[in-house]
Model the fold of this input.
Amino acid sequence: MEQTAEELNCKASLIRNLIQTGELRAIQVGARGLWRIGIQDLEDYIAHAYRRTAERIAAGELTDDIPEGE
Done:
């Protein structure tokens, strides 16, 4: 989870939430129940997020308030 959070530049708590809601696929591995997220699952999540964002832009739901430097 930490690597995924680092890749998406967010907190691990957000990744946990995405897993719990089913937005991001993951599996529990081993006796300690560590969560693992496959590379393809992460790439699929990112691609889906891009599609959702494009749809929201096309629908006029997002404005031009993107912070400078991003």
